[in-house]
Amino acid sequence: MSIWVRGGSRSGKSAYLVEQVCQLIESKQLNSESNHELITTSILIFAIDADNRRQLSDRLAQATTGKSFTNVTPLSFFRNEVTLFFPLLIKKLNLKSQFPILLRVENEQELAAKLWADQLNGKLKMTGTNDIRLVRRILDLYLLAAYSGTPLAQIPQLLQDGIELTDQSPALWQEMAIALESWRDFCWEKGLLTYGIITELFGRYLLPDPQYQASLKTRYKYLFMDDVDEYPAIACDLSLVMLNQGTTGIFTYNPYGSARLGLGADPGYWQSQIEEKCELVSLQNFNPFAETALPSLLNLTLTPDPFYNPQPIAGFFSLETRSRGSLLRTTAEVIITAIAASEIQPQDIAIIAPGLDNIANYALREILTKNNIPIICLSDQHPLANSALVRSLLTLMTLIYPQLGSLVSRDQVAEMLTNLQPTIDPVRAGMLSDRCFIPDISNPKLLPSCDYTEIYRLGYEASSGYEQIRQWIADQSATVSPLLLLDRAIQKFLVPQKSSYEQLANLQALLETAQYYWQIGYRLGWQERQILIGFIDLIRSGIVTANPQIPSSQQDQSVTLATIYQYRMAHTQHRWQFWLDTGSPLWSQGGSAALFGAPVFLKSWQGETINADYENMMNRQRLERLLQDISYRTEQRIYLCYSELNTAGQEQMGELLTLKEIASLA
Q1: How many CA atoms lie within 13 A of 161 on its CB side?
Q2: pLDDT tens readout for residues 578-592
Q3: What residues does each domain of the chain span?
Q4: 0.70 surpassed by pTM
Q5: Alpha carbons 36 and 377: distance in angstroms, whole number
Q6: What kind and span of H or E run contains 577?
Q7: Are strands 70-72 and 349-353 parallel, antiparallel or unpaired?
Q8: Which of 234, 365, 424, 562 is the most buried (most CB within 10 A)?
């Protein structure tokens, strides 16, 4: 009998799932039905994202003394299955016989914009939305449609029924569908896979296929899915197929989760289709602090009553300042003082914000780090273009490959010299780039330092370091693979510098991006120079980001800085929470707005128009789930951090301002 495990945050749902896996293995081994390797390979385990999958794998390995399982995320499972059964899809859809290549998000955006260039200059226009944002919005519609199993041809009607009409709406929705169909045909022809195309291929063509269903039945006898409230509808369809074939399933569900609602999740569909087929297990979390605070939190934010007279709650404190800059410093000082007084350890503190701008990120990091308090940012994505080492490697490429002179300047050469050779300081690097760099469209080059009439001003170390770089460039051949060149440059100049973990992550992301880009370029028949220029422009545009995995040892001793969405998806807890910018209206949106048109792709959508009233209703529901969720993720204190003015100097009037009534001034 399959089991539906229902419980709030920190109620032990994942622990229950791990326990059931252990009991299953033990029962099968005691009954001698098969060896343990056959048992573990017949178990399919899902987690919502890579971080949660990694944590669940570690818990399973520890609980089962090192046994390995098929542990996947929905998207990784779809990708693996589509790749494995691509010959079946080739036959079914009459596709070209070629090995598929996965498109990254940045490559998808670039190629779609090029494919739709004529339409973007014509009918494909949306008022108040630039071309870059419009391309992303259309591609997101593809992914939402694939998640829900909706054919592309139905998108215009759904948008027309659900989005408030303007004069351009009906024609625009039809034009979007035409653009998406042309994009799908292009990718099918070239053997390119995006996550939208992967999900559509899996849900609409692979999953209904009898041959594939027979393979699923043969391979997997047991299905474990953690946090299904965050999963798309197509994953529910997969579960239904497996359950109908006799697979035993265990599903954990958080009624106050759904952080990904509006980003592809469809928790209502899961409840309506799976819960009734399972035995219900309810888990409770005993958290005195949350249970005391929640009634007041919900009353003050969701249903304000002028006659409600709340009492201050122990453990709730308020930090109030005039400007946001003062708020950031005050918040950091409270943390510094508490740690210095041994009231709390850094790893027991979380700073949660509806959105983290660069100013807040930098200010909090800088203040805490200067006081020897480590801090980590969850899912800290930053553009590769922000890395001086990455920019220097791109400049190096323009000095080796011909016809790239328009992509390099004197300032970029000076930066390259400083980063590749620590013996060259910025002043001498500027002198060298001014006197020894010869700009040229077809063949820019570096002159020997001895040609500089005042070489004595450089010094021995700087001139020697410069000559090493110049000679290395001269020794390279323009016919060498750019990937090999980048690797050689890293080994020659950057590895000896003992780069930091973050710098190494940037270099790794650069090499991976280059590998993907050249694969795509060769598949599309681009010339080598076209690939080079496109790659350099792509990195410099700031679209490509690095997201280094934080070492667990660093996580265990650092203050956590996260957005609401990141914190909820991390499924962690802390003794103290600092709710930053509690006056911001973004709190009611869960810190991230839903994708355009997302509600119309929900299975439970009844044709309601997505207007201001509908969005307000969704925001209230989202805020209730948010407060229930993160309140149970703290044990002792919540600091409401509020500034009268936001970064733009405007007064803040968010829904959480009323919570000041239950908080004491810190």
Answers
A1: 13
A2: 999 998 888 887 556
A3: 3-82+203-283, 101-190, 290-301+313-377+560-593+610-665, 385-499
A4: yes
A5: 40
A6: strand 574-579
A7: unpaired
A8: 424
